[in-house]
Amino acid sequence: MVSNPVHGLPFLPGTSFKDSTKTAFHRSQTLGYRNGYAIVRRPTVGIGGDRLQFNQLSQTELDELASKAPVLTYGQPKQAPPADFVPAHVAFDKKVLKFDAYFQEDVPMSTEERYRIRQVNIYYYLEDDSMSVIEPVVENSGIPQGKLIKRQRLAKNDRGDHYHWKDLNRGINITIYGRTFRIVDCDQFTQVFLESQGIELNPPEKMVLDPYTELRKQPLRKYVTPSDFDQLKQFLTFDKQVLRFYAIWDDTDSMYGECRTYIIHYYLMDDTVEIREVHERNDGRDPFPLLMNRRRMPKVLVENAKNFPQCVLEISDQEVLEWYTAKDFIVGKSLTILGRTFFIYDCDPFTRRYYKEKFGITDLPRIDVSKQEPPPVKQELPPYNGFGLVEDSAQNCFALIPKAPKKDVMKMLVNNNKVLRYLAVLESPIPEDKDRRFVFSYFLATDMISIFEPPVRNSGIIGGKYLRRTKVVKPYSTVDNPIYYGPSDFFIGAVIEVFGHRFIILDTDEYVLKYMESSAAQSSPEALASIQNHVRKREAPAPASESKQTEKDPGVQELEALIDTIQKELKDHSCKDNIREAFQIYDKEASGYVDRDMFFKICESLNVPVDDSLVKELIRMCSHGEGKINYYNFVRAFSN
What we know:
The protein is of the alpha+beta class. The protein has 17 helices and 24 strands. This is EF-hand domain-containing protein 1. One of its GO terms (biological process) is mitotic cytokinesis.
């Protein structure tokens, strides 16, 4: 065996040599596992299996030497190694925080107790932050006691956070599964632990005792001095004597409430009260005679009896400080019975005599409780916005879902297809507007007006529909109360203003004169006279100059001659009576023109001989350049 040649040399700079005979350079294991947890293990041999010289100095001395290493030679000192890792279940094993608490539980179906106090112990396990609630078992308590909440982590809010020992303190309330616990105190270990973690504890509170348990500790027998009031004498004296009062219950302040009438009976024999409903014929209510059965009526209850279950249990003298008596029922005063306020407005003659003899009250007049209906509230409409008709806009204020305004059906049936037509000119300073002519159509069924402008060739203005059917408001009427144009406003020379445009009436048809003469009461005498004078002038024979001018116009003479010839040859045709009405039905604007296709369809439906040579020539002369035919001259050939 060859000995180590460098063995024994001092370990100084320059004298350290590598051992060439060494073949093992592995390091010892410093990490181990115990029960599934990693723990630190201090090695006993060094690199290559060389034995380490340890335990020569204590750990404290080694730490002190490590901190005092020379900085100039070896640099900055190394940080002290961290403390050994200790798992929570090892550090806090069998360490439990204990708190004393209680919670209140309601007892609804008992005459002896309304609530009970249950004392519990709350345990907090530090090793896994779990909690449990234990109620000490009381012998013969009749309540399942013991472990109320088994050991588990308890949620403290809806976000899923759990209770921590930092959330626990004396004098606070905690809610666990909908039940509120009041923590009043803790044990010594819990106090020391929380104070060591920097938590300031609240002062301890006194544990609340259960009132029923304390009551059980008192003596069972109690002696009550009997009353000297003779109830038998009261029964014999006031038997069959009843005070009758007439009262109302006004519930009109609530939704769907009403004012109802009742009769209150007070029995003098035992001071009981009965309330009866007053029913009327066809009042829509079930005929229940009694609102409240005969019973003694409490006036003032004790403080703790407000939650007494009166609908299940009968109330006794222990819950009542004062009962209603006959002196509380006075005409003209209100009294509250079981939550309802009744106003007494009258009583019967026996009751008046009793109050006069017993209490000396002589003035008990009847009080008038009839209510007068309030005046109807005038509905105010918002200002008109200018869109559509005023009647249509007002319907939005009468109902949530607007409906169309009601129409005068009888007027529409009587005046169906009755139209008044007028010829008007536009009053305008523009020279191009002086020769424009407009046909006003007034529909008697709906009081609407439409305006049509007959197209004129080479005028530079597109004719056709100028205004669709609508009601026209007079210029000087108010927005809230509009006044529309009527038949009496149309006469020769009248100025009609339509949405800022002024028109002057120049001519009318014969039907207007017949309508105004048949309904003279609806038209002014001046308007009727102006139309009559205009028609007479129009029917008067033309002057000689005009007749000569007509004779000079060969187109007019040819048209008149053709019409006379057709009237002589086709005078027996069957369609001469209704041909004008057929064309007027399709001429909605009363322009005197219809489309060419529609013209031939009407003639075919009326058996008009359009194949005749004379009729073809007449159609050619009445034709317009835009595919329309003037049916006025065409109808003259088939009329008398």
